Amino acid sequence: MSRRQNVPPQFDDRSAQLEAARARKMARSSHAYVRGNTAQFYEWLATVQGTHIPEGPPIWICGDCHVGNLGPVADARSRIRVHIRDLDQTTVGNPAHDLIRLALSLASAARGSDLPGVTTAHMIEAIMDGYESAFANDFDETEDLPDPPESVRIAMKRASRRTWKHLAKERLEGVRPDIPLGKKFWPVTDQERHSIESLFAEDSVARLATMVKSRADDANVEVLDSAYWMKGCSSLGFLRYAVLLSVSERGEDSPELCLMDVKEAVTSAAPTADGAHVPYDHAQRVVEGALHISPFLGERMRAASLFDRPVFIRELMPQDLKLELDRLTVEDALRAAAFLASVVGYAHARQMDSQTRMVWQKELSGNRANNLDAPSWLWTSVVGLLVAHEETYLEHCRLYALEDEKS
Hints:
Helix 3 (38-45) crosses helix 14 (376-406), helix 4 (95-112) packs antiparallel against helix 5 and helix 4 (95-112) crosses helix 14. Helices cover 45% and strands 16% of the residues. It is built from 14 helices and twelve strands.
């Protein structure tokens, strides 16, 4: 089995390298820091400044609804929609938290694009317009989404044309049947390899590989290779594996390949609504939340256990893409705000009956500022969070620079 030349860390060296990678990623920009610091977001909401936020109907929320967690997602039949695509923090909670998290992320992206402050104010208005559009008594989320910005249209076109070869080139650097070790993929121990093979020998897990693209239910599923996956930011330090599978039907000479993402599920930073019924097992919580919020993704996920830790598993589809809004024009910023807010709005609205939607929309439309067509609580929350994150981001950069000098 051929491998890349650079030597990845061994098991005992993982923790130190993961912590260093997380610090490096968080220091890249204030926008990256905001996206990777979910805990501080909820710590701020728990302070006096965050107590003026309205309490929406308890529903499944994303819990970490920043821009990077939305994008094109394919279902088991390769149909594509823009959905929330990361549900690690999902819980039954206050939908206002998702709205604020999205607004904060978009405002941070606008600042990173050197857009004027007045654009941020108009973005907040656009967010409310897009979000509230989902709460009509009779809505059709296949028709009522506003026009997407150019960045989203490009991502959707890319997603519709993508094949396994595109995914392999990006993730595996080739279409050969192994995972090349290096910067992102690290070697697993014998114990890890055996445990992963046992996991995918379970019928319910193997079914994930046979449910897409009309693969036969009785197809043979074999683990070809596995690697520890150094990926993400807030999830660094927890279990994360890439698993390459071969799926072959009876009498078939050339098996299909598929790439599985195995990720540890941990405690959500988002507060759960009082009295809400949420699965105690964190992996089951993530899957349940995905089924409610992003059904295209949820139907392709399974909860399991690995090394007595809860993990959730999904096949990576070529059409699954992350949205990148690093450089925004004023027009794109406003369109992105309205479009992405409508995606979140529909994820929330589909869980409510018409009466609940009407009451929540009425709550949202109240408390408007005299000079801003958006609730004052949303504007003051975004401003307060931007200030709080900027201070801690600069301190993070100072400490990172000191550590970098020592090394």
